[in-house]
Amino acid sequence: MNLPMWNLRHSNKPFNPSIVYEGHPTLFTIKLYHGGEFTNFRDRKYIDGKVNYVDMVDIDEFSIHDLDAIMRGLRYAVPPYIYYHFLVPNGDFQFGFRPLGNDADLLNLA
């Protein structure tokens, strides 16, 4: 079966990953927070942002260039340097963020 490249989905659209990803162990979904800001360090929160999902991401093929393309798809101008981070599973907003600056960092998602 030939699967499409990643797909940008708004948070209100249904998606069942257990059905779609069955038999495809390298595929996953990114929950992407954007357009907001973090509060101060103590009891840090993310406020005034939006949430989108990126489905059909293949960890074996995904690159920082894809992340830039996703941001352009959300109508952001991607400057020469943009800083991405991800929250480690079960991590908190105080100390659980890790950088996504290059393709090697993306391996930490797997």
Strand content: 25-35%
Radius of gyration: 15 Å
SSE class: alpha+beta
Low-confidence stretches: none
Brief summary of the model shown:
The chain is α+β, with helices and mostly antiparallel strands. It contains three helices and seven strands. A hairpin with a 7-residue loop joins strand 3 and strand 4 (46-47).
Task: Give the SSE layout.
Layout: E1 7-10, H1 17-20, E2 27-34, E3 37-38, E4 46-47, E5 50-58, H2 64-73, E6 84-87, E7 97-100, H3 103-106
Antiparallel strand pairs: 1-5, 2-5, 3-4, 6-7
Relevant terms:
single chain; 110 residues; alpha+beta; three-stranded antiparallel sheet; two-stranded antiparallel sheet; 7 strands; 30% strand; globular
3D structure, described in words:
- With 110 residues, this protein is an alpha+beta fold.
- It has one domain.
- Helices cover 16% and strands 30% of the residues.
- The protein has three helices and seven strands; from the N terminus they run βαββββαββα.
- It has a three-stranded antiparallel sheet, with no helix packed on it. Strands 3-4 form a two-stranded antiparallel sheet.
- The longest helix has 10 residues, at 64-73.
